[in-house]
């Protein structure tokens, strides 16, 4: 794990011409934070964590969030804590984007197993859901529901009409967070109740559900009565992740 | 059968058409075609360079024209001063005022007042006046030019002087505007044809609109699409103007030869078109005769009046035959007179009132035209700066004309002229004049920066094709659906659709058909992808489309390359998932796959795909085979014959310690080869079949041992044996494939160069950098000037633009992807 204190002191790039100010934000270490072609797996994203204030790009919050997650995806409390001086809704927005991003990978894992034959309906325990991305809600099979929901969420989150800026979120758009969160929750729910092993393995790797749930609860995005996945474990620290994984596996077996 | 063949090897038998020999034949044929194509490209580049050269000259001539204009203005002013002085002295002698303008020459010549040939000039002038008086419309403009300084004059005298001034001005516009024309006359055919079309336009008479349109369009054919103010310093040295320094001179000569041949061909066709022209000329003959006489007289006045600089230039022109002129074919000579410049020349020289026969007439004109052409050429070459400067100074001193004032006068003149251009003027003189104005303006607008283009917009937009303008790419569609950096984009080879791969692990396929049609820019991101490909478990690094197979490919940080069915363009968003879409995975790399490239040619039974990975290997896959897709794999040192059969574990693990590939491309000019760049900045040329290293480029001179100088991207030129590399140290470098030497190097961006693409025609290089800018480079010119630069994307974690792509077949379509998760599609305007 890289911490702020371990920034290596590399010399600035040997420019024969001074890089103009507009050329942007070289990190204090002088090493550009980018994955050059040819970078090996172990070196990907291996740059020091920058304090949020020093990130000058328009994507400062996203960069900060992603670097937190890369550092330790299981340190949920740190990840969902609003950085000081930041806009609550903008932070929420970035989080939801990140959840959508990572849910892609959950779907990738679900796809081989969650076929229209296996899951002809979008169910989570005793609930059944209709796909709301169509003009009239439709009974899509589970995998379609999942992809449609995710595509719909990404369409909404990327809509400049609702979210014109990454720095602040218009008041009118805040209500969208709830509907997005509610639908994304169902993806987790379906995975949990019907593809438990995949859900658990994924959760062990990313703690995505944990992050999402804590975020939604703390920001009142989802009412408690809609939460149908039983508490995985009461621990929220990363230490429990491994144990949780073992436990959940044994439970499935 | 075999026995029999072996005994009679000489006789051609059916067996000679065996598959290998056919294949060989086809290959040799194909190679021949490729060679020819290369030659054509070289030739094309030659022509381009020539055009640039000619334009440089043109600009010089324009400057001369401006200079002359200034002088004319000064003379006019001087004339007015003298005249008012004269009138003050001779109140009531209004009838002789017409003579007074003739005093100007004395001002110029010996600067001691008027005397002498006032009378003769006066007579000439009166003659001219008679002719001129019919063209009153023209006079109106003149009156605007003349300041009302001579208010005390009686009206008749004023009118007469005005007439005289008008003639002067007319003459001046002849002299000045005929300069570029005549110069162009001395050049090979491009300008000739241009002006031929102008003459068509003129001949078309009142309904000259058709001609106007066509001439503009033709015209656009002869000028490079991309002209940048700084791109062409006036006369380019010929040798440098060849785009790629390594072009063999042999090829150049050959190209020149072909060019010559084409010239005469083109002219032949022109000759066949002559009857029409002749008719038209006959029809307009009356008009022209008047004009001719007029101008002749005006000319004589002008000469008598000795507009100093001009006449000295005229007089001391040696009758030197430049080789270029001497070389010109008879065809050209025949064609020449139909051109506008010939028309002008004819006026400028002698009376050819009634041509005996069209041929005779034309020949005479041609001869005369050539002389003038030489004269102006000589004039241009010699110049006489000191004398001119002295003259200007003298006049300025004498009349206390400040430079500002002079400029103002010139401006006024320009304004009036442009007014004339626009105005619906009907008389022949004005028509011709407006043409004189329009042509140089049109030419000038080609070489002037975009602000000027905007100013000239009305003039330009109506008829001229956009390709003629400095090309401007404008964002048309913005695609926002990705959640993270867009790493790679690929256009469908024929459709208006696009594939984008992102670090969010998804690949999206976009149908741009509808959104490109919309007139307004659809920037608010309402375009929905027709499909989102999910399957990779980590970020996607590269995508590719193979239309023949109806497949697309993606490479990812999860070490795999995957192939997918290309969804149909009309697929609805949010439709049922097609389980057929994921097709296969190419598993074999053990580290991030950084780039993939499809072999440029696909044969029905096989489509090769090359991938490079951080594990150090380059792998070639056969994407169509039923069996094991891996065709070959090699590392930094290429493939040794022993490894060919069985890559050992030690070998693959050893690879990782060697430099890893960072970029790859197939060579369109030699399909057996491909280039790969490595993390130590070495570019290597490999034989695709054998995996043998053919050549290591001397590209690592700039490598300092760290990733800060590595190569991020390489692309092969589509038609020339050139590799272009984009470096982390912000440079773009050009390498010759045959020798491996760097032929050109330029500091291209403010931050590292992340991506490159060359337009399908091979004329423009597009580069994207982590400074968030996209730049277009004119690689057909020797200077590689930047044609356009724009900020395309916002930066995220020190990344800016990550990918740029031209549409492979549809011109005027380009897309960029950036760290801001956005894909932008641009159209050329």
From TrEMBL, chain A:
Region named Disordered: 1-43
Stretches with biased composition (Polar residues): 13-32
Protein name stated in the entry: Mob1/phocein
UniProt organism field: Linnemannia gamsii
TrEMBL record, chain B:
TM ranges: none
GO molecular-function terms, A-Z: calmodulin binding
SMART domains: WD40
Ranges of Polar residues composition bias in the record: 93-112, 254-270
Segments forming domain Striatin N-terminal: 20-178
Biased composition (Basic and acidic residues): 312-322
Region (Disordered): 88-112, 191-218, 254-284, 312-335, 367-391, 413-444
InterPro entries: Striatin_N, WD40/YVTN_repeat-like_dom_sf, WD40_PAC1, WD40_repeat_CS, WD40_repeat_dom_sf, WD40_rpt, WD_repeat_striatin
UniProt-listed Gene3D superfamilies: 1.20.5.300, YVTN repeat-like/Quinoprotein amine dehydrogenase (2.130.10.10)
Residues in WD repeats: 479-520, 533-566, 586-625, 746-787
Key words of the record: Calmodulin-binding, Coiled coil, Repeat, WD repeat
Top-level taxon of the source organism: Eukaryota
Protein family: Belongs to the WD repeat striatin family.
Protein name: Striatin N-terminal domain-containing protein
Biological source species: Linnemannia gamsii
């Amino acid at each position: 794990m890289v911490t702020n204190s371990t920034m290596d002191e590399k010399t600035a790039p040997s420019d024969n011409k001074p890089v103009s100010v507009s050329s942007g934000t070289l990190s204090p270490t002088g090493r550009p934070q980018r994955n050059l072609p040819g970078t090996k797996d172990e070196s990907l994203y291996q740059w020091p964590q920058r304090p949020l204030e020093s990130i000058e790009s328009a994507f400062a919050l996203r960069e900060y969030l992603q670097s937190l997650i890369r550092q330790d995806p299981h340190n949920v409390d740190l990840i969902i804590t609003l950085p000081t001086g930041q806009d609550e809704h903008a932070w929420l927005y970035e989080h939801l984007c990140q959840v959508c991003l990572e849910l892609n990978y959950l779907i990738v894992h679900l796809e081989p197993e969650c076929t229209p034959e296996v899951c002809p309906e979008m169910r989570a325990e005793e609930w059944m859901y209709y796909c709301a991305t169509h003009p009239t809600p439709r009974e899509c099979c589970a995998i379609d529901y999942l992809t449609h929901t995710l595509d719909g969420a990404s369409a909404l989150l990327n809509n400049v009409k609702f979210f014109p800026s990454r720095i602040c979120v218009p008041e009118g758009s805040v209500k969208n967070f709830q509907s997005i969160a509610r639908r994304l929750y169902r993806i987790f729910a379906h995975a949990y109740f019907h593809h438990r092993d995949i859900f658990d393995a994924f959760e062990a790797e990313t703690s995505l559900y944990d992050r999402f749930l804590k975020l939604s609860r703390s920001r009142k995005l989802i009412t408690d009565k809609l939460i149908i996945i039983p508490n995985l474990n009461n621990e929220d620290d990363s230490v429990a992740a491994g144990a949780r994984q073992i436990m959940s596996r044994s439970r499935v077996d | 059968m075999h026995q029999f063949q072996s005994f009679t090897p000489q006789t051609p038998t059916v067996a000679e058409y065996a598959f290998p020999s056919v294949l060989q034949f086809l290959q040799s044929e194909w190679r021949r075609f490729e060679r020819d194509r290369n030659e054509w490209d070289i030739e094309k580049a030659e022509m381009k360079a020539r055009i640039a050269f000619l334009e440089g000259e043109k600009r010089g001539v324009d400057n001369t024209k401006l200079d002359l204009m200034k002088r004319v203005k000064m003379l006019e002013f001087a004339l007015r001063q003298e005249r008012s002085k004269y009138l003050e002295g001779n109140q009531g002698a209004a009838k002789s005022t017409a003579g007074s303008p003739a005093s100007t020459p004395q001002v110029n010549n010996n600067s001691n007042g008027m005397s002498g040939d006032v009378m003769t000039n006066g007579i000439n002038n009166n003659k001219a006046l008679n002719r001129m008086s019919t063209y009153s419309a023209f006079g109106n403009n003149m009156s605007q030019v003349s300041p009302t300084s001579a208010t005390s004059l009686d009206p008749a005298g004023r009118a007469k002087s005005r007439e005289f001034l008008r003639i002067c001005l007319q003459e001046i516009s002849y002299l000045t505007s005929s300069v570029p024309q005549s110069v162009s006359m001395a050049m090979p055919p491009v300008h000739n044809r241009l002006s031929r079309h102008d003459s068509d336009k003129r001949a078309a008479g009142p309904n000259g609109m058709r001609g106007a349109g066509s001439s503009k369009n033709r015209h656009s054919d002869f000028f490079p699409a991309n002209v940048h103010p700084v791109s062409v310093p006036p006369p380019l040295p010929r040798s440098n103007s060849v785009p790629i320094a390594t072009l063999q001179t042999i090829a150049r000569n050959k190209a020149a030869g072909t060019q010559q041949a084409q010239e005469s061909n083109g002219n032949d066709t022109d000759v066949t078109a002559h009857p029409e022209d002749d008719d038209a000329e006959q029809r307009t003959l009356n008009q022209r005769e008047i004009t001719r006489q007029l101008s002749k007289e005006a000319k004589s006045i002008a000469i008598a009046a000795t507009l100093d600089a001009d006449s000295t230039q005229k007089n001391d022109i040696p009758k030197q035959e430049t080789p270029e002129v001497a070389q010109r074919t008879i065809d050209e000579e025949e064609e020449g007179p139909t051109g506008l410049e010939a028309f002008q020349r004819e006026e400028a020289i002698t009376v050819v009132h009634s041509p005996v026969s069209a041929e005779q007439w034309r020949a005479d004109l041609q001869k005369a035209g050539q002389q003038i052409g030489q004269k102006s050429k000589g004039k241009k070459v010699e110049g006489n700066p000191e004398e001119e400067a002295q003259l200007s100074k003298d006049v300025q001193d004498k009349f206390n004309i400040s430079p500002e004032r002079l400029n103002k006068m010139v401006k006024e003149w320009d304004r009036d002229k442009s007014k004339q251009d626009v105005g619906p003027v009907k008389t022949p003189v004005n028509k011709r004049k407006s043409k004189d104005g329009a042509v140089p303006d049109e030419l000038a607008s080609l070489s002037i920066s975009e602000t000027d283009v905007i100013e000239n917009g009305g003039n330009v937009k109506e008829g001229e094709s956009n390709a003629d303008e400095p090309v401007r790419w404008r964002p048309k569609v913005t695609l926002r659906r990705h959640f993270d950096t867009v790493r790679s984009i690929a256009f469908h080879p024929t459709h208006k659709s696009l594939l984008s791969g992102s670090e969010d692990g998804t690949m999206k396929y976009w149908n741009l058909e509808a959104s490109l049609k919309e007139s307004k820019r659809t920037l608010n991101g309402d375009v929905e992808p027709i499909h989102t490909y999910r399957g990779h478990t980590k970020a996607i690094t590269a995508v590719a489309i193979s239309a023949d197979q109806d497949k697309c490919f993606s490479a990812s940080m999860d070490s795999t390359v995957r192939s997918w069915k290309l969804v149909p363009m009309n697929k609805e968003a949010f439709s049922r998932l097609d389980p057929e879409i994921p097709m296969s995975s190419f598993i074999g790399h053990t580290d991030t796959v950084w780039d993939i490239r499809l072999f440029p040619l696909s044969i029905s039974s096989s489509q090769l795909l090359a991938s490079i990975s951080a594990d150090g290997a380059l792998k070639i896959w056969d994407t169509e085979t039923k069996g094991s897709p891996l065709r070959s794999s090699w590392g930094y040192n290429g493939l040794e014959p022993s490894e060919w059969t069985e890559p050992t574990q030690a070998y693959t693990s050893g690879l990782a310690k060697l430099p890893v590939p960072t970029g790859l491309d197939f060579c369109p000019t030699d399909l057996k080869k491909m280039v790969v760049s490595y993390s130590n900045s070495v570019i290597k040329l490999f034989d695709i079949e054998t995996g043998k290293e053919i050549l290591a480029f001397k590209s690592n001179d700039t490598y300092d041992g760290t990733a800060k100088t590595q190569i991020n991207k390489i692309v092969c030129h589509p038609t020339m044996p050139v590799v272009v590399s984009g470096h982390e140290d912000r440079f773009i470098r050009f390498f010759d494939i045959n020798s491996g030497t760097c032929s050109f190097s330029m500091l291209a961006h403010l931050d590292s160069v992340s991506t490159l693409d060359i337009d399908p025609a091979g004329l423009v290089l597009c580069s994207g950098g982590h400074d968030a800018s996209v730049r277009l480079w004119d690689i057909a010119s020797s200077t590689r000037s930047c044609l356009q630069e724009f900020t395309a994307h916002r930066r995220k974690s020190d990344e800016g633009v990550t990918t740029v792509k031209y549409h492979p077949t549809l011109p005027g379509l380009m897309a960029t992807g950036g760290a801001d998760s956005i894909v932008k599609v641009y159209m050329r305007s």
